[in-house]
Specification:
It is built from five helices and 18 strands. It is of the alpha+beta class. It is elongated.
């Protein structure tokens, strides 16, 4: 009997202990959990950009992600003369140079600072593509290159395709061959001509069967007389030829290999009178040789 009574008494004491001390223990655990969540949230703050290059006179919006409704964000520029920032995070470039924008997130007594490095450069006043013509096989791709002046410009070329169904181009200048034919890729800058048009340069892109790429490259390399033909005349002839290789109804197969080269040579001779151009080219080369031998 004494043992049973002692066991019941011990159970009773344990229950009293739990009721008395658990309420004191639980808030501590809850506070620890809240502190961990707050720290996690604070570490989750991030900017949409950690560094950016701006053209003088241009603006962009700096944003802080993952902020709570009761948090406040303030922005400050280390050098407002180079780049200023307003209360909404709009950064505006004023002068060539380097500075830092600091975004500070405050929530209660917690404060977190995030930085974005700003480089301000001059705008471009000229642009030139390094290649005037590219030949690609279906599904092949290539990366365009441009030369812009001044060399330290912060401006990026804006690329576009005249016919994206034939050749697509990414914002970074990577072209992808989609369909047999020919189209033009444009590289543009903000500077304008005296007539008010934006300055740009173009590149012809011919898309053919992959096996015909080397044949076409060899054809153009072995026909230097094409350099004496006007650029517009040659471009128009190539555009007409490669975009009419197959009738719209698909009644004929696209020529390949030697048949393609033969058809191209015949077409260009008829359109551009290459026989006369070759004669002029040979005469010009002969004069150059004679001048060099004297």
């Amino acid at each position: 009997m004494k043992k049973k009574f002692l066991c019941k008494y011990m159970v009773f004491l344990c229950l009293i202990f739990c009721f008395l001390f658990l309420p004191c223990i639980l808030p501590v655990s809850e506070n620890i959990a809240k502190a961990s969540e707050t720290e996690k949230e604070k570490n989750d703050y991030r900017l949409n950009l950690r560094s950016v290059t701006l053209v003088n006179g241009k603006s962009f919006n700096l944003k802080v992600y993952n902020i709570e409704n009761d948090a406040k964000v303030t922005y400050k520029s280390a050098n407002p003369e180079i780049a200023s920032v307003n209360d909404d995070g709009t950064v505006t470039a004023h002068k060539v140079g380097v500075t830092t924008i600091t975004a500070t997130v405050k929530r209660g007594t917690n404060s977190t600072s995030l930085t974005c490095d700003i480089t301000v450069g001059p705008p471009a006043f000229s642009i030139k593509m390094t290649r005037s013509m590219i030949i690609l096989g279906l599904e092949q791709n290539d990366l365009l290159e441009v030369i812009m002046k001044p060399s330290n410009t912060a401006e990026l070329a804006k690329f576009s395709s005249y016919d994206p169904s034939i050749v697509s181009v990414s914002s970074g200048g990577r072209i992808t061959a989609k369909k047999i034919g020919m189209t033009y890729i444009f590289a543009e800058i903000d500077a304008t001509t005296s007539e008010g048009y934006r300055k740009f340069d173009t590149c012809k892109v011919i898309v053919c069967n992959p096996d015909d790429v080397s044949l076409l490259k060899n054809y153009f390399a072995t026909h230097p007389e094409l350099s004496l033909v006007s650029e517009s005349g040659l471009s128009n002839a190539l555009y007409e030829f490669f975009n009419n290789l197959q009738p719209a109804d698909g009644s004929m197969e696209i020529p390949k290999g030697d048949a393609l080269i033969g058809a191209l040579d015949k077409y260009l001779n008829e359109k551009l009178n290459l026989t006369e151009a070759k004669k002029k080219y040979d005469e010009m080369m002969q004069l150059i040789k004679e001048a060099q031998s004297q």
